[in-house]
Write the structure tokens for this entry.
Amino acid sequence: MQSLTPEQKQTGQDNYYEAVGVTRRDFIKGVAAAGAVSGAGLGAMYFGYGPVKDPVRVGVIGVGDEGNVLLGGCTPE
């Protein structure tokens, strides 16, 4: 275990957030605002995805309960 001073910990946090460009709190606030307006999820917001212009249609047979849950995450709305 490393023993860092509070100043070193703060410097590390500052460097991390500067490199990442956003804090978790800011990210969640932005996603919540975008989700309320457009229905976008966390993944779509993070990767900058927009609406699909030419959707792919897929048919799935026999996926069961768990498959239905996973497929629910793939729906456009």
Notes: Residues 6-20 form the longest helix (15 residues). The chain has four helices and no strands.
